[in-house]
Amino acid sequence: MPKIDVKKVPGARKTAFPPFIAPQLATLVKDPPSGGEWLHEIKFDGYRMLCHRNGENVRFWSRNRKDWTEKFPQLAKELKRFPARQAILDGEVVIVDAAGRTSFQRLQQAMGKTNVAAFVFQVFDILYVDGYLLTNVELRVRKEVLRQLVEAMPKAGPIKYSDHFEGDGKSFFKQACDYGIEGIVSKRADSHYDSTRNKNWLKIKCARSQEFVVAGYTPSVKGMAGFGSLVLGVYDKGKLLYAGRVGTGFSLKQRVELARRLDRISRDSSPFATKPKDPGLRNAQWTEPKLVAEVSFTEWTDDGSVRHPSFQGLREDKSASE
Fold it and tell me: Which end of the chain is less congested by CB atoms within 10 angstroms, N or C?
């Protein structure tokens, strides 16, 4: 049983079970912070999920409040064994490879399949437990409550505590990058949980990857099914700007299915604020800017496009307006 008595934790408030708590978001920065006031965690490449356990009812909610419970039935079943009758957990659903790295591509390939045993829920925060709201409790204390609860579960199970490193963020970041991990998340140890994006949580990426709005597609000049490349955009001050095209990283099945989805939201005119100069867009099929794709790339060009992009998957958990 947990050693911490939540009733006596400074900042814990007795309240009814909340219907939803919007997630705290991290700010992207170039370099990790230094100093003893920071905790550093591995950045997982998966789907951010808020898990609600209220008695025998377990639900998974995406960051934009979509119910994803049916996608992870095995995890929901496992969380009925969580050693608190009521809890709201913040974490990431991932698939881990043999080397211990998370892969968004593998996660995408597994989505929609039944009885996927490879799903893991990496839990890094707890917001509510047995009648007490913990959002005003310091992060270091919340994590200790969480650690004790998760470690009371079967060690071989799919529910894992996301541990952290205290100390030099730069050395931890270097080790993460050397190991091939996506990056790290640094969090102020004394911070409360705020349902917004601020600089109490910072994310630092090893490789360049980003979410892009899909603005359309170009037909294949090689006769491939579906399309040749997706047309990418990014929002800047409310305006959608052209960011290049991505034509690699897709399976044949993904090309066909994506083309069908895009055809359902097609439009006659370009959704970009200014006309792109790319001559490869001459025969582009434009779409409403509703879908979001995660794309890895090597660098940005001077004209604002991505170099050597590779498609990683659709971000069903994020809206284009973000």
Answer: N
User: Which residues 6+ apart lie within 8 Å of 71 measured at CB?
Assistant: 60, 111, 112
Residue 235 neighbours by CB under 8 Å, 6+ apart: 213, 241, 320, 321
- Annotated active-site residue 143? The verdict is no
CA 77: distance to chain centroid? 22
Q: Is 212 within 8 Å of 293 (Cβ atoms)?
A: yes
Q: Which of 7, 8, 14, 43 is catalytic?
A: 43
Contact 263, 280 (CB under 8 A): no
Integer Cα distance of 78 and 153 in angstroms: 9
Which tens digit of pLDDT belongs to each residue from 15-59?
A: 999 999 999 999 999 899 988 899 999 999 899 999 999 999 999
CA atoms within 13 A on the CB side of 161: 18
Q: Tokens for 277?
A: 């100069």
Dist CA 14 CA 127 (whole Å) = 12
Model confidence pTM above 0.85: no
